[in-house]
Specification:
Butirosin biosynthesis protein H N-terminal domain-containing protein, single chain, 7-stranded antiparallel sheet, 11 helices
């Protein structure tokens, strides 16, 4: 076959590529929406943003790995990928692939032909359109989801540089560039030495888990440490969770004002995406589960999403003009938005908990 293109759609979360890659696959399959809205509720944050390469993130039971050489944490992929019921994840070491005695282009094409999406690290120095092309060596995760022999290209999802902005999108990569990026990438850490083959599981059954969603929402509202549920994997790590993430963002902005920390829009982008997901979740609960009592909450929650969208935009303005007045406005907006979200999510939790109790009692 001269061309194969596996389906993907724009994902709801793009702040970090490991979410974007997975959710771009699932977005094509509306039957997976109940699983998505049953999860992606809790947030966690390293209070010192310098302690992790992923300092602020959705909590999806990801494994945190300590990199001793860099004295910071990073996020492992294996547990996250294996926790997604709609995908099967096969892990293959890069060394094994390179030692097969075959060129990586043929290997990648065969995987795609077998309906496997490829989640792997490449060196973006060799990849056109990326922010690092022909500038710096940079190992990054990409999703390869198609190929075209006539054009001699792979279809890839990742961040690209477009009109002075970095955005998550789809683009073509010539075979020779992908071969260089795949074979010449330098990776530190055992957890980065793997390529993952992701295959969609079409017969998965996962109805909306109201009890699980209530537990997560309660943990978010009460800033509960959700890593206590992962004691089988690692000791609980003392991070900030849920509503406490607001004060973490305030502290980050204070450090930014004093030029004591590097600029990083990702935590604010994730915080905003958390609100867009929560807004969509409210709509899903109303239309899918018939929780009509949530309509007022959904209407008012638009102000929470608007508040975090405004903070994110102001932060990007600050990157351009370094106006300290913007920092004060961002902190004030966070302080106004936090109690509003706290109140609305408590009301949301009360409705969901009541509906869960009724379902258990056989009322519905």
């Amino acid at each position: 076959m001269s061309a194969v293109l596996l389906p993907i759609q724009p994902p709801m979360i793009t702040g970090y590529v490991h979410h974007g890659h997975v959710l771009s696959i699932l977005a094509h399959y509306p039957e997976s929406s109940d699983w998505f809205y049953s999860n992606y509720i809790q947030l966690y944050c390293h209070r010192n943003f310098k302690d992790s390469s992923v300092p602020f993130n959705f909590f999806i039971y990801d494994e945190l790995i300590y990199e001793a050489d860099k004295q910071r944490y990073t996020t492992g992929l294996s547990h996250y990928l294996n926790s997604i019921p709609w995908l099967s994840a096969e892990k293959i070491s890069r060394q094994r692939i390179l030692q097969m005695g075959r060129d990586c282009v043929s290997f990648l094409k065969e995987c795609i032909h077998a309906e496997c999406y490829i989640f792997t690290y490449i060196d973006e120095f060799f990849i056109p359109h990326t922010p690092f092309y022909q500038k710096n060596r940079f190992a990054h995760q990409v999703l390869i989801f198609g190929y075209d022999d006539e054009a001699g290209t792979f279809q890839v999802a990742d961040f690209i540089q477009d009109r002075n902005q970095t955005k998550y999108t789809q683009f073509d990569v010539p075979y020779e560039h992908m071969a260089q990026g795949f074979s010449q990438v330098e990776l530190a850490g055992e957890h980065r030495q793997y390529t993952y083959l992701l295959r969609y599981r079409p017969h998965t059954v996962y109805p909306f888990d109201l009890q699980h969603a209530c537990r997560q929402l309660s943990a978010y509202v009460n800033s509960g440490n959700s890593y206590h549920d992962m004691r089988n994997m690692q000791p609980p790590i003392e991070l900030a969770f849920g509503m406490e993430s607001y004060s973490c963002l305030e502290n980050y902005l204070e450090q930014l004002r004093q030029d004591r920390i590097a600029f990083d829009v990702r935590p604010f982008h994730i915080m905003w995406e958390h609100k867009t997901c929560m807004q969509a979740r409210l709509d899903h609960l109303i239309t899918r589960l018939g929780l009509e009592d949530l309509r007022d909450v959904a209407a008012e929650y638009t102000q929470v999403e608007k508040g975090m969208r405004t903070v994110r935009l102001m932060l990007m303005m600050y990157q351009q003009n370094q106006d300290p007045a913007l920092i004060s406005k961002m902190i004030a907006t966070l302080q106004d938005t936090a109690p509003l979200e706290q109140s609305l999510l408590e009301r949301m939790l009360a409705v969901m908990s009541s509906s869960d109790a009724q379902l258990k009692g056989g009322i519905r």
